[in-house]
Design brief:
Length: 310
């Protein structure tokens, strides 16, 4: 695809094939006219950086024909080649953009997976400059672009937009032929070793409770930080259950791992220091949480739901 400033970018509806959104290309990043493009959308008059997907095509200014493949002639106007400026760029409303929620979620998922921007962009079929723009500015990516990123990051476009933040997981459709596979101890330990957020089931004076905690895996033991008067602290001195899981809403697949074992408080100063220094994340709940609880597994089980191909 090739374009120049003044051309129109038309995004077609995947259902009817009619124009679902249209805007004027006001800037190009490369002298040969290849994406990404800066587009001023007709419906909002805002300018966003766009990597067109297969549902988009370019219509030349003055309705020139044969423009989508390019004629090899020099392009005029637009932005000079090179990386995007680090300075905020004004939108159609004249206000400088700020990092948006989509970009923050993309960045967080990418870092969680240990991916660089370059690797993520390569897998998603987009320019690294555009991914940097998306993570740092209030961008409005196309549905196709967001779907590609969600596939690379193992999540969904709805999740990247924040639409599912207040919804319980698992509302997507079930697989046509689901199969439950029991996981062996080694695979369970591998899934646990990523650390993150799990749930501990404890007995409290008010009754049974299941509480999410940020956890670490140290010497095959589960360790989490809490406050002495909190519900997770009630695990100390008893046998408890600890569970982690992951659901793929788009594919209807997922896994869960259950750990059972005695919990104790970590009192050795050197052990506490090592846990604090090696923690991958601070407790999401915040506050003073200097008490470390360790669960030594006596039983580890897990299950995975996959597609059973007929």
């Amino acid at each position: 695809m090739r374009a120049e400033p003044g051309d129109r970018l038309v995004v077609e509806s995947p259902v009817t094939g009619a124009a679902g959104r249209e805007g004027e290309i006001v800037g190009v990043r490369h002298t040969d006219g290849t994406p990404p493009y800066e587009v001023r959308w007709s419906d909002t008059h805002e300018v966003t950086l766009v990597v067109p997907g297969p549902d988009a095509h370019v219509r030349g200014s003055g309705h020139r024909q044969g423009h989508t493949t390019g004629s090899g002639r020099p392009r005029t106007g637009g932005r000079a080649p090179g990386p995007p400026s680090a300075e905020p760029r004004a939108t159609g409303s004249g206000r400088p953009p700020h990092p948006g929620d989509i970009g923050r979620r993309v960045s967080a998922e990418r870092r969680r997976l240990g991916l660089t921007r370059e690797e993520t962009a390569r897998r998603a079929g987009m320019a690294p400059e555009y991914l940097a723009y998306l993570e740092e500015q209030a961008a409005d990516p196309t549905a196709t672009c967001l779907a590609r990123l969600a596939g690379v990051l193992g999540t969904t476009p709805v999740a990247l937009r924040g639409g599912s933040i207040d919804l319980p997981p698992g509302q997507g459709p079930a697989l046509a032929h689901p199969r439950i596979r029991e996981l062996g101890p080694d695979e369970c330990r591998r899934l646990l070793s990523a650390s993150g957020v799990g749930r501990v089931a404890v007995s409290t004076p008010q009754g049974p409770a299941v509480v999410p905690v940020n956890y670490e895996v140290v010497d095959e033991a589960i360790a989490y930080r809490t406050a002495p008067d909190s519900a997770p602290a009630a695990a100390v001195g008893s046998e408890v259950a600890f569970e982690v899981d992951h659901l793929d809403e788009a594919l209807g697949q997922g896994w869960s791992v259950l750990v059972v074992g005695p919990a104790r408080v970590v009192t050795d100063p050197d052990a506490v220091r090592r846990l604090a220094e090696g923690a991958h994340a601070s407790p999401w709940a915040g506050g003073e949480r200097e008490m470390w609880v360790s669960i030594r597994p006596t039983r580890i089980t897990g299950r995975r739901i996959t597609e059973d191909m007929p």
